[in-house]
Amino acid sequence: AGRLFCWSPGDPPSRGETSPLYCILLATGYLVGFRDHWIMAFAFGLNVMAVGAGMLLLYHMLTRRLGWVCGLLSVAAIVVSGPMVYAVCCGMETGLACGLTACTVWALDRAASSRPPDTGRLARYVICASALPLVRPEMILVVAVFSLCLAVTLVRRQAGIARVLSCLCAPAIPFACVLALQWFVTGRPLMASLDVHSVWKSPIHTFGGKWIWFTDNLSQAFFALHIEVFGALAWPAELVVAIVLCFSVAGIVRRRDWLTPGMSLVAAVVHLVFLCGQRSLFQLSHARYFQPTIVLLGVPLAYGVYVAALSFDWLRRNAAWRR
């Protein structure tokens, strides 16, 4: 539209514009010559490159920790999931958000594993974490979980107050500037995807009623995710997911590797719970918003594959011994 926070020429400012960085990238493509239907090709290529780069970094991180089989299976499960294919092909910003999510997890792992703390690795984490909520605003919750965890790690390693404050505050500064600009333009500080009618804003007054309302939302959200990822006929998907998560937690405990996989699992739960406050997301076409959750779950999934392989090897050796 040529104006900030406007969908079409002549429209008033809207709080529905929730991906300022993606709009800037598309506008750059438009200025360099991608016009008309070619802008869709540009958006598709942008999503493919973002997802490809993020998955390569995720594969490198998981391979370094668990071996190439666990890394490959985890990344393949992410790439072939329904929302990922839909997000990349439709030209929306979800592919870029998934790629940046993977890059942020990789940067978190590199920054947290450096002894003593490395300034360059911290800078890479700050850059990735700053860009992520500019693509999908609700990802600021994931960044908050990661930054808090990294800050605690730096404090335990006596990294210095400057580095601790930089990883805590720096990722939120660009997003705060965008919110301040939107407040000035539209008169309201929050984007539409952040101003949700959560369980605590529901008209139900009793705690039991709120809990039932919340669990109903959660089941509907998982149903939408179920259909998009596993297909309408995959009725045992809930059981499969529960078993995989149990193996994943067992793998994290077995490896005593709490930071990256543990925080990825916590961030995925926080992201999913937040999305359950948005009833409009229960439309199947909106299930792509859950795709960053699947990217986050891909990290503990690799640990689940690892402990499953160990269990299978133990059963095989035990059976051979009995024969």
Descriptive keywords:
323 residues; mainly alpha; 13 helices
| Rg over CA atoms | 21 Å
Give unreliable regions as ranges: 230-237
User: Please, how many helices?
Assistant: 13
Roughly how many Å apart are the termini?
Answer: 74 Å
Largest sheet: none
Bin the strand percentage.
Answer: under 5%
What percent of residues adopt helix (DSSP H or I)? over 70%
Q: Indicate the structural class.
A: mainly alpha
Q: What's the mean pLDDT score?
A: 76
Got a strand count?
0
Shape: globular
Query: What is the string of helix and strand elements?
Result: HHHHHHHHHHHHH
Characterization of the model:
There is one protein chain. By secondary structure, the chain is mainly α. α7 (140-156) packs antiparallel against α8. The protein contains 13 helices and no strands.
Summarize the structure.
The protein has helices at 20-31, 38-66, 68-79, 82-90, 94-113, 119-135, 140-156, 161-169, 172-186, 207-230, 237-255, 259-275, 291-322. The chain has 323 residues and is mainly α.
